[in-house]
Here is the input.
Amino acid sequence: MKLYGKKAALERIRQFRRSGRFPHALLFCGEKGVGKTVLADYTAMLRLCGENGDEPCMSCKNCRRIEQHIHPDVVYPLRKMEKYKVAELRSFITECFMAPNDGDLRIIIFEQLDTMSAACQNTLLKFIEEPLPFNSCIFTSESKAPILETILSRVTLVNVDGADRSECLAALAERGIPAEKAAELYGLYGGSIGKCIDGANGSDTELFRIAAEISSGLCCGREYDCAIRFSSVKTREYAGQLLTLLSEIFTKASAISSGGKISGAFSDQARQMSQKMSIKIISKLYDAVGELISELDFNPNLQLFNAHCCAKLFSVIESGI
Here is the structure.
């Protein structure tokens, strides 16, 4: 298993290892594609590896089985349930009262905690709050926002960042992606290697490219270019996805303007925007995109709606607020 990026997260995990005090519940939080589940697998290896040290040996029986996802004491509930449900979670928790199969520790990796309903999260609350000594939980999530405060207060948060440029390009090269294409993917998706790989397979690269070009056009006052890019979107589904991507750019640009740090997709575009526009304008653009998303279903003519999108965003910029 080769890890790219995640330097701060890895250092925290290794500190837990060195101290001998692993939290009973960890939450790995980061953008889609940054490798949160890979880090969860690595952490499971570190805890169950038969060798001592800051790194799992990668060759013992436990490490090999975890890498192949066949270890009986490293379980992924969502992969069995497909969707978290209260009844199935309760049944799973009951099973976890039994001792582990192959050792003295069971590691439960709850992926996509942010997709879990409040009822499901409440079902887990006592399980996290009063853990049995042989159960340890790792949660992954793209955002903290959907997670109940009662859950957040009982887990140890570890933020997971994407890879830097050189690491990302190296990871993509290992997968046979040409250097020029890899550089383009990094420019669109940042250090989210998973997103870059999906983009290389053609899943949504064109939409990301359109969003990046519209962002650049907004920054440089090229209204005609933006109008052309909007007009290339031919379905309502794509129009909605494009507006959502623009909202992400505006959110990140606003974060930079407020002194925050960002990573992942559209980092370059967000930095450019934060340098060219005031935070008030960026906030207004964010609000305008939200209004456009709500208007999408009520506009019968998509071509006219695309033109309306471009005009509305440039009217915000020209207002000089």
User: Anything to note?
Assistant: Strands lie at 25-29, 74-75, 106-110, 135-141, 156-159. The domain at 7-159 is CATH 3.40.50.300 (Rossmann fold). The longest strand covers residues 135-141. Residues 236-257 form the longest helix (22 residues).
